[in-house]
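Quick note —
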Amino acid sequence: MVKRTGWLIMVFALAFALLVTGCGAGGGGDTGGNEQGAGAGAEEEKLSGTIRLDGSSTVYPISQAVAEDFMDEHPDVNVTVGFSGTGGGFKKSTAGEIEISNASRPIKEEEKAAAQKNGIEFIELKVAIDGLAVVVNKENDFVDHLTVEELKKIWEPNSKVKYWSDVRKEWPKEEIKLYGPGHDSGTFDYFTEAIVGEGGASRSDYTASEDDNVLVTGVAGDKYSLGYFGYAYYKANQDKLKVVPIDAGSGPVEPTEENINTGKYTPLSRPLYIYVNKEFYQTRPEVKAFVKYYMDHVSDIAPEVGYIPLPESDLAQEKAKLQ
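Predicted structure written out below.
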């Protein structure tokens, strides 16, 4: 009886919908009305299409994690995430080739001009904050801090630094064992850009791995080692490692959530962004749903992949841009 009643309700609803459609028929305005009326209730259940993201390899882990969770809920939507670099993402997005660009820096004036030339507007959304930790062995009793210049001297291509005494004369003449992310890592790009001055520019004679466990084990197992990776991963292993405060010219600053959030921990903290094509957001339900899902869940997802969530007040301001 319940099934029959449900079936009759469906028939009645369908008949009513046809009646309303017939009464409201009037040419071109008909399609828009149906999209707004029927779509309002069924949009979340029947989303489909393809959403393309590309750009910063630093933002990639966040966007990829969001995409996977979103597709679990909306299996008819295909979300692809590339990592051609921030500049590469903007090149595609300003040409209208992708819906969303991942960026580890704000858009440049020339990129804005390219978008304007093609009639493209963006919604700029901050999604998280990136912080890196420089670490040494727990038993290291001589490194109290490093300057940006000292880090550059250690990590730049063709570096002449082999021993700790090559960094500061008073430090022991013990060989530095270096550990860091591989070249495909967004952390690698970020660190080399911030410290060396050019993304991807680094000495090659170090132990590289995409697995942070390898890096932690390496630094924890050698008294004279030095490494870097995401702050969140250091925090999870701080009992095994010693973090190194960084001096960018205003005195040594230790990475903490507060220092990273406020930007005091410079240059190894910065906001991360997504740039959403405004037209696609306004006209395509699957894009709108994905972006809203992104902003609603990013504070939970960001720490899972090694990033600092935005303060709640800042996140609220970013969400307000979608109104």
